[in-house]
Specification:
The protein has two helices and two strands. With about 70 residues, the protein is α+β, with helices and mostly antiparallel strands. A two-stranded antiparallel ribbon has the order 1-2. A hairpin with a 2-residue loop joins β1 and β2. The longest helix is centred in the first third of the chain and has 16 residues. It is elongated and about 55 Å long. The N and C termini lie far apart (about 50 Å). About 0% of the residues are buried.
Length: about 70
């Protein structure tokens, strides 16, 4: 018995093989890569340093929430 996730991946493979020839392994390899990488970011805002050496990497499926005053 397959899990819903396995069934979803099989459906994706079927759709992709019909459309543009991308295989499921190729898709999974792309999804495993970082979709955003920031390294050593510095930001000064009105003379005040608000970021100092920020590094961040987000992968597919990661969630990031930024909160603060507008």
């Amino acid at each position: 018995k397959s899990t819903p996730r396995t069934a979803d991946l099989a459906s994706i493979d079927t759709v992709l093989s019909r459309s543009d020839g991308i295989s499921l392994p190729q898709l999974l390899e792309c999804l495993a890569m970082s979709i955003l990488t920031l390294e050593n970011i510095h930001k000064t805002y009105f003379g005040k340093r608000v970021l100092d050496g920020l590094s961040l990497s987000l992968d597919f499926g990661d969630r990031l929430v930024l909160t603060g005053a507008n």
